[in-house]
Amino acid sequence: MALTDDFQAAVAQSQQLTKRPDNDELLELYGLFKQATDGDVSGERPGGFDFKAMAKFDAWAGKKGMAKEDAMSRYVNLMATLRQKYS
Questions:
Q1: DSSP string covering the chain, please?
Q2: At residue 54, does pLDDT exceed 90?
Q3: pTM above the 0.90 mark?
């Protein structure tokens, strides 16, 4: 259960950064979070001019097949790096 606790703490810390991470870092966080919480991406890729939704979908789809625990661990590690960089 320690990994789940660490993951939940990292999610809470993501809201407390004093500076905004760049878009690539945010998309990586998003993809890892969704994979850890919802599993593999489902549904169709958004189309049209909703570039933000397409980027988020692609970030999550890039994690397809990754185990929940691996996604949690990577999220925790990425947040540790971002805390040092943006806090």
A1: -HHHHHHHHHHHHHTT-SSPPPHHHHHHHHHHHHHHHH-S--SPPP-TT-HHHHHHHHHHHTTTT--HHHHHHHHHHHHHHHHHHH-
A2: yes
A3: yes
